[in-house]
Design goal:
Strands 4-3-5-6 form a four-stranded mixed sheet. A two-stranded antiparallel ribbon has the order 1-2. The longest helix is centred in the first third of the chain and has 21 residues. The protein is about 50% helix and about 5% strand. The chain is globular. The protein has two domains: about 250 residues, 2-methylcitrate dehydratase PrpD; about 120 residues, 2-Layer Sandwich (60s Ribosomal Protein L30, Chain: A), CATH 3.30.1330.120.
């Protein structure tokens, strides 16, 4: 590669046109946008969300972009930050190889697009391109995981890429935006290990900083051309990566089409075990009192994030999201694991806490996957031991959730949060996103959704259009 990686990415972003995007990439961008907005809507009343919103509201400033699930407008950086917190709060947003791209990119891109009244076609192009860049960076990681939070250290680059594309920056300025993003990259997995609210703020830090990088580049601020591949660049200091892997088939293959959609609102390392528990209960209905003991077998990688580790001062909601013991107990007791299980009253429920004591988590060294396989073993008071092993994480392209399940997730999430949407408003918002290319101004996306009556011309939109 003669050019630096930042220059190669910048050249690609500047030259990319909407008509060059394959339908699968555009459809995926819409589906991911729907998913991210929905889980953010449900996250607007999660722990820490009120503090984030109050903090940015106190700063004031020019109203430029919508605060999701609330309706007021804040400056572009404040909006990106608050919406980033909401999107990450329930750990329910989509991901590629564990990197939650859109939870960082969408708050940034939509804030800038609203501020500048960008049309839906150009917005969709920027969103798909930026998410593809993040996925490529995630795929390029090599060697042992150093403990950086991939979502934020890669996601900030996507937020900057989307901002640069929406601002129509030239190749040099776009390269500067990417370099400015790398200079602000941060975030580790320590908040997940200690179960603190910082975990859900890291995506917001990255989203806001990615926008800032683009805005500064637009004003002529320069950055290293070799921000990724220099002697003191990203790959040398953060996480080793392969530049050739990042640019392979760039502009021809879009990795956002391989996004995984979460079936459960918790760390992905627990999903295979939840699925196994649900299958056991479905196939062998068992009352809680008939279960003597439960053993959950997970890999060392899974244990690193969701194994049992009592931590003084941990936030109960974050602890529940990163506990396979809690998730499996919920699945066995209730048959599922949903947003409702993250409510404080349910987390602290005495019956559930008592049942959790019967659930033992063990590390099986023969299990080498990051998210799967996982096995759940139920030992009843009477009868034979029951086992179920899940080899593929649900929601991935290899085990996708169907359209009905995806629609149910959207309805559940949009119907939750600080300002639940009624079915009519959910349909309108969904239709606007499905037809995003025809939206003349992105600052009209939420018209009638949170602040007024639904316009008659919009409310008649078909609710039966297929999910992309």
């Amino acid at each position: 590669m003669n050019r630096s990686l930042a220059q190669a990415l910048a050249g690609h972003l500047v030259s990319l046109r909407h008509e060059a995007l394959p339908p699968v990439a555009l459809d995926a961008a819409k589906r991911v946008m729907l998913d991210t907005l929905a889980v953010a809507w449900a996250g607007t009343d999660a722990e820490g969300a009120a503090a984030a919103l109050a903090t940015v509201r106190e700063q004031g400033g020019t109203p430029q972009a919508t605060v999701w699930g609330h309706g007021d407008r804040l400056p572009v950086l404040s909006s990106a930050f608050a919406n980033g917190v909401f999107a990450a709060a329930l750990d329910f947003d989509s991901h590629y190889l564990g990197v939650h791209s859109d939870g960082v990119v969408l708050p940034a891109a939509l804030a800038v697009a609203e501020r500048d009244a960008v049309n839906g076609r150009d917005f969709l192009t920027a969103l798909a391109a930026a998410n593809d860049v993040v996925c490529r960076l995630g795929r390029s990681a090599r060697g042992a995981h150093r403990g950086w939070y991939y979502t934020t250290i890669f996601g900030i680059v996507g937020a900057a890429a989307a901002t640069a594309k929406l601002l129509n920056l030239d190749a040099d300025a776009t390269c500067n935006a990417l370099g400015l993003a790398v200079s602000q990259a941060s975030g580790t997995q320590q908040p997940a290990v200690e179960h603190t609210l910082t975990m859900r703020f890291q995506a917001a830090f990255a989203s806001r900083s990615g926008v800032l990088a683009g805005l500064l580049a637009a004003k002529g601020v320069t950055a290293p051309r070799h921000a990724f591949d220099g002697n003191f660049g990203f790959f040398a200091l953060y996480q080793p990566g392969d530049s050739d892997s990042v640019v392979a088939d760039l502009g021809r293959t879009f990795l956002n089409a391989k996004t995984a959609f979460k079936k459960y609102p918790c760390c992905a390392c627990s999903h295979a075990a939840i699925e196994a528990a649900r299958k056991l209960i479905a196939d062998h209905p068992l009352a809680a009192e008939s279960i003597k003991r439960v053993i959950v077998l997970i890999s060392p990688d899974m244990d690193r994030l969701v194994g049992i580790r009592p931590i003084p001062g941990a936030d109960p909601q974050v602890a529940a999201q990163f506990s396979v013991q809690y998730a499996v107990a919920c699945a066995l007791l209730t048959g599922g694991f949903s947003v409702g299980h993250l409510q404080r009253a349910n987390i602290l429920d005495g019956t559930l806490r008592s049942f959790m004591e019967r659930v033992t988590v063990r590390v099986d060294p023969s299990l080498t996957g990051k998210f799967a396989p996982a096995e759940v073993v139920v030992i009843p008071l009477r009868g034979a031991t029951l086992r179920c092993r899940i080899d593929t994480m649900p929601g991935t392209p290899d085990a996708p959730i169907d359209d009905d399940a995806f629609s149910a997730k959207l309805d559940d999430c949009f119907g939750s949060g600080a300002m639940p949407l009624d079915p009519a408003r959910r349909r309108v918002l969904r239709q606007r996103i499905l037809r995003l290319e025809s939206l003349p101004r992105m600052d009209r996306l939420f018209d009638g959704i949170v602040d007024e009556e639904i316009p008659l011309a919009t409310s008649s939109a078909r609710a039966t259009a297929p999910i992309p």
